[in-house]
């Protein structure tokens, strides 16, 4: 009787183990159906995916099948897909996202032969897309704080996702988190974003204006100029920075090299004119504070202003000659001629400027 009973127990155990393995087969079949099911309602889709996930619950709960790599890879597939499909239900999406992450980790540990590599990769991509969906939905609802959190989760899992770094930076700007904007834009630039030039502009601007980080902003500016030497915004900003630092020589040294390399670049000519003109404007501010009774001091400052303006003049003229659409050069020339009381050139410049403004309005 004992021998018969023992045989019966062994048969029962084998049958139970096979039953658990059949749960993996059931999950595989359910996944095949889910992948090719079209035009289902959200409720029907979630029900189908939930049943597949339940099959993997049963498989990993049994001692005999808990270490089957398929049990975990398909669990990752089902949970990640639920997280993606049900993105608007954030608690459910996050809960299934955690299930998927755990399953992916376990599947990778068990998949010594790489037999489930494709399924694991698909689950990872689906999970990433689920997070992106959540971020976009949150952004559209103007829940920018949550959107930024989700975008950052995506880049933490996929540190080479260039577009998501850009999205994170744009979202950070919405809540005034400028250090976060700079961090994400810099990462996108480093990864070779096609929008690197505009990302540099934004990051440099907020570094100086909002974060007040002169060191970081200057480093970004140097990098931007090295990559985009013909960008007038960058060269102009560097000129402004050098002038504010009182380092006119450094600014002019840099611009002279650029002009020597490309003398027909209107932006370089204009920027060089600025190195003189902005010094003159600075002196004008100081002159306005001089006591009118101090005529000699007033006249000395005026003479220096005139000297600087005379040096700026040919560069602005050259800039306009090279680029007749450079309105800023005309505007500065008009002011200079007014200061010099040069009525002929003032009227001629005003006429050109008025004609250009009228053409722009058409």
Automatic annotation (TrEMBL):
InterPro entries associated with the record: CellSynth/LPSAsmb/PSIAsmb (IPR051012), TPR-like_helical_dom_sf (IPR011990), TPR_rpt (IPR019734)
Domain of life: Bacteria
Segments annotated as TPR repeats: 128-161, 162-195
Alphabetic keyword roster: Repeat, Signal, TPR repeat
Gene3D superfamilies membership: Tetratricopeptide repeat domain
Residues making up the signal peptide according to the UniProt record: 1-19
SUPFAM superfamilies: TPR-like (SSF48452)
Name the UniProt record assigns to this protein: Tetratricopeptide (TPR) repeat protein
Lineage per the UniProt record: Bacteria, Pseudomonadati, Bacteroidota, Sphingobacteriia, Sphingobacteriales
């Amino acid at each position: 009787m004992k021998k018969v009973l023992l045989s019966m127990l062994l048969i029962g155990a084998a049958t139970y183990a096979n039953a658990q393995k059949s749960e993996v087969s059931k999950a595989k079949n359910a996944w095949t159906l889910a992948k090719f099911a079209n035009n289902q309602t959200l409720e029907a889709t979630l029900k189908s995916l939930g049943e597949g996930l339940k099959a993997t619950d049963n498989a990993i709960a049994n001692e005999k099948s808990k270490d089957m790599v398929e049990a975990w890879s398909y669990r990752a597939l089902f949970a990640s897909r639920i997280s993606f499909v049900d993105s608007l239900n954030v608690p459910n999406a996050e809960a299934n996202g955690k299930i998927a992450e755990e399953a992916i980790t376990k599947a990778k540990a068990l998949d010594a032969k790489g037999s489930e590599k494709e399924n694991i990769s698909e689950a990872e991509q689906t999970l990433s897309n689920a997070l992106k969906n959540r971020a976009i939905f949150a952004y559209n609802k103007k829940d920018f704080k949550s959107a930024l959190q989700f975008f950052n989760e995506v880049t933490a899992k996929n540190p080479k996702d260039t577009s998501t770094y850009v999205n994170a930076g744009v979202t950070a700007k919405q809540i005034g988190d400028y250090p976060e904007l700079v961090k994400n834009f810099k990462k996108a630039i480093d990864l070779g974003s096609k929008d690197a030039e505009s990302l540099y502009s934004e990051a440099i601007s907020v570094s100086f204006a909002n974060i007040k980080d002169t060191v970081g902003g200057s480093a970004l500016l140097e990098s931007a100029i090295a990559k985009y030497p013909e960008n007038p915004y960058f060269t102009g900003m560097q000129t402004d920075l050098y002038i504010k630092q009182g380092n006119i020589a450094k600014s002019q040294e840099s611009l002279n090299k650029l002009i020597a390399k490309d003398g027909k670049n209107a932006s370089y000519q204009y920027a060089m004119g600025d190195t003189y003109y902005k010094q003159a404007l600075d002196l004008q501010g100081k002159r306005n504070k001089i006591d009118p009774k101090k005529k000699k001091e007033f006249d000395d400052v005026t003479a220096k202003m005139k000297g600087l303006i005379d040096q700026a003049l040919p560069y602005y003229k050259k800039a306009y000659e090279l680029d007749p659409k450079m309105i800023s050069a005309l505007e500065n020339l008009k002011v200079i001629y007014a200061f010099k009381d040069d009525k002929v050139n003032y009227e001629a410049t005003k006429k050109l400027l008025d004609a250009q403004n009228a053409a722009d309005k058409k």
